[in-house]
């Protein structure tokens, strides 16, 4: 079925990015719709149904901040909302603003072809639905393409297998079962601390230690502004009268969180004072230890080693078994800390202390195969399990985009364009692909920031640009190839001058076999990124060819 109407914009994905973009476009009077693969909105939170799933950005900054009607009429219950809380928020958002009438669910976009003569995108899906749009906006998210390693024998396993982001809606009964979790990223941390107390036995297969830091959860209804009751942490829930001021300040902090790095440089602060900075950030919980300490943590090995020593001392004191202790928090750091987005925990290390929980280091004892009854490793042989959970991550940042066969007017696909490396201009578009933008994707601040902050900045900028084009009667925009090279070089140079390159992570595609290792995140911080966008605008959208 073909939709005869040519939309102003077709948005792919109904997570925070897609919804933010949709709201911006509807306010401007642009005809726009979203195609969403899931059966409801929420993006990553629709899919991540696994036990213990929750966000690592705290309130009030993890929401659509421009929608005062929404945040003024909705009360979260937790500082770090669970998946259930976030879906309650999305349902409220939908009910209040009537978003679902602009969203086509259960629809996966398979291809998009640009018509050079008409300056229009023609989009096809896995259903019989197709449409045309002046602009194509990719809001496919960081983590939409799941990755499960190609283990030998996986198809022979007689138990149940699940990826953390494809959890059954009705859940899984794991009480009294023998369970394996492969991987140690955020979903693994959250799953481990949630199910470890109910399963008969849990085996965690670790390649890289999680090095998780304290969540310091807080329930909203436990807090009164002048209370003397016990606190979970030093964090305080702000009053809604403070929200607008808080939101306005986020674009001035490096990570788009409520606070910034410590004002003074690492080398200008005494070791004693630095310990106080670490202790304060640790006590605040959440991403504070990552983003409120010293910026030099990301560029100086000396600074990073000191931060790791503080962290290791804190965590190692909680782990009883010396073998587990050295596996989970080795004295020598496995990588520069903070060059992977840190996982947050409440009882992760307490659960790993339990006698019914084992850890297998797959560096020392690789997984050989999956058998009918479990997982076979080099040293341990077969560990029999009923359920295997793959917390093995995603083909992040570019995977969701490349899953769609996107071709420009010359018939060249974006996959072909990026065959030797990802290229972009301002982390929102690519040369040779007119009228195409993405949000919260490659070469933008992405996961090196608070998601709604960077998403809001990019969505507002794209909407303003397209509005200006509409006022001028312009219908085609494409990035200049030379400016694309300059931006891509800028992204690479920031990366090169940091501690990030030596760390194997999805930030640079290291987790996907055969994927080019390259910087995929912009690590210059929100203020510098905003400055670059504003400079482009102030110079008549320099770097774009607009007609």
Architecture overview:
The protein is an alpha/beta fold. The chain has 16 helices and 20 strands. Strands 1, 2, 3, 4, 5, 6, 17 and 18 form an eight-stranded mixed beta sheet that branches. It has a five-stranded parallel beta sheet with strand order 7-16-8-9-12, covered by helices on one side. α1 packs parallel to α14.
Features of the shown structure:
five-stranded parallel beta sheet; 16 helices; 547 residues; eight-stranded mixed beta sheet; alpha/beta; 17% strand
Short summary:
29% of the residues lie in helices and 17% in strands.
Q: Which sheet architecture does the biggest sheet show?
A: 8 strands, mixed
Q: Which whole number gives the mean pLDDT?
A: 95
How many DSSP-defined strands? 20
Count of alpha/pi helices: 16
Seen as an oligomer or otherwise, the chain set is single chain
Radius of gyration: 23 Å
Low-pLDDT windows of residues: 223-232
Any idea what the shape is? globular
**Percent of residues in beta strands:** 15-25%
Helix content: 25-40%
Task: For the record, give the distance between the C-alpha atoms at the N and C termini, rounded to a whole number.
Answer: 32 Å
Structural class: alpha/beta
């Amino acid at each position: 079925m073909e939709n005869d109407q040519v939309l102003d914009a077709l948005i792919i994905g109904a997570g925070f990015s897609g919804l933010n973009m949709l709201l911006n476009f509807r306010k401007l009077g642009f005809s726009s719709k979203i195609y969403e693969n899931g059966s409801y909105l929420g993006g990553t939170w629709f899919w991540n149904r696994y036990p213990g799933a929750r966000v690592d950005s705290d309130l009030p900054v993890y929401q659509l901040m421009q929608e005062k009607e929404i945040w003024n009429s909705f009360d979260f219950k937790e500082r770090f909302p669970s998946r259930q809380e976030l879906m309650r928020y999305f349902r409220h958002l939908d009910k209040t603003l009537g978003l679902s009438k602009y969203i086509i669910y259960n629809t996966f976009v398979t291809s998009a072809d640009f018509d050079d003569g008409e300056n229009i995108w023609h989009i096809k899906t896995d259903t019989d639905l197709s449409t045309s749009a002046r602009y194509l906006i990719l809001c496919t998210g960081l983590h939409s393409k799941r990755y499960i390693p190609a283990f030998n024998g996986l198809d022979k396993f007689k138990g149940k297998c699940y990826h953390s982001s494809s959890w059954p809606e009705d859940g899984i009964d794991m009480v009294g079962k023998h369970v394996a979790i492969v991987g140690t990223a955020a979903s693994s941390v959250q799953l481990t601390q949630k199910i470890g107390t109910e399963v008969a036995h849990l085996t965690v297969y670790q390649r890289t230690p999680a090095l998780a830091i304290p969540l310091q959860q807080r329930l909203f209804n436990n807090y009164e502004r002048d209370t003397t009751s016990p606190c979970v942490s030093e964090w305080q829930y702000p009053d809604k009268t403070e929200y607008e001021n808080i939101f306005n300040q986020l674009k001035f902090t490096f990570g788009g969180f409520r606070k910034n790095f410590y004002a003074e440089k690492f080398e200008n602060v005494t070791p004693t004072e630095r310990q106080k900075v670490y202790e304060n950030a640790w006590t605040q919980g959440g991403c504070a230890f990552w983003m409120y300490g010293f910026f030099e943590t990301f560029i100086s090995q000396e600074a990073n080693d000191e931060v790791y020593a503080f962290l290791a001392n804190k965590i190692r004191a909680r782990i009883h078994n010396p073998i587990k202790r050295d596996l989970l928090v080795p004295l020598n750091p496995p990588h520069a800390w903070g060059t992977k987005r840190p996982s947050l925990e409440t009882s992760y290390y307490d659960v790993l202390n339990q006698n019914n929980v084992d850890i297998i280091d797959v560096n020392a004892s690789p997984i050989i195969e999956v058998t009918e009854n479990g997982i076979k490793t080099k040293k341990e042989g077969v560990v029999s399990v009923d359920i295997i959970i793959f917390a093995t991550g995603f083909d992040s940042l570019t995977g969701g985009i490349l899953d769609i066969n996107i071709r420009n007017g010359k018939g060249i696909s974006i996959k072909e364009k990026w065959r030797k490396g990802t290229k972009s201009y301002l982390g929102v578009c690519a040369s040779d692909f007119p009228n195409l933008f993405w949000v919260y994707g490659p070469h933008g601040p992405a996961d090196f920031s608070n998601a709604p902050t960077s998403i809001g900045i990019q969505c507002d900028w794209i909407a303003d640009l397209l509005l200006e084009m509409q006022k001028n009667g312009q219908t085609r925009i494409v990035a200049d190839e030379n400016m694309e090279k300059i931006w891509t070089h800028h992204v690479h140079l920031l990366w090169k001058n940091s501690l990030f390159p030596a760390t194997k992570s999805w930030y640079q595609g290291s987790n996907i076999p055969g994927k080019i290792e390259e910087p995929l995140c912009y690590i210059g911080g929100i203020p510098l990124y905003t400055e670059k966008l504003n400079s482009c605008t102030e110079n008549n959208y320099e770097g774009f060819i607009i007609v």
